[in-house]
User: What shape does this take?
Amino acid sequence: MFSGRSVLTLSLFLACLMIPAASFADSSVDFSNIGGTLAGSSSGLTLSGSTLIAIIAEGSPKITGDLGTVAFSTGALTSGSSLTKGGTFAAGGTFIVTGNGTNGVPSGTLFSGSFSGHVTWSLVNLENGPHSYTLTGTLTGTPQGVSVSGVTVQLTINTGKNFFNGSTMISGGDTTIVGSVPEPSTVAMLGTGLLGLAGMVRRKLHS
Assistant: This one.
């Protein structure tokens, strides 16, 4: 006979194993990351060393901890003469979420894709002069032959009164992947919602 705790543990383990499958159904999975270095120039931006700290798959318990990594690269700059004031990067590049086998999360690639549209790099002027930046982009991938899409929002740390000089740290990021290709209006609504969340996070960080 299994105890109640054993059943709960087994259920959690099985739910964790189904995280990749959740990405391929008509549902969603949310990845949160913190830290890492965002570096680049007009040739593109690259995130490395960012830690995956939470996964929420629809219908499954939230999993937290040091779960893996999030890394990406964008296409080249298409508008904006200086990254200090923001700009737009081309579609393409890569976006990879990797699990490390912790807390039942599978070890290996959880999502692999690229930016399906332009990537927006926005300067945010905070109170009393400090600066921060927000990177927002839509994603697409075809793991296991199934088309999936999503949106990522990445927030940089407060750079003080200095502007982006080619490298900065990420304070936090959120990436939501859905199992079927959404309508453009759905992507827009998701992006708007994530930007609203980003604003709340930023206010909390700088309060």
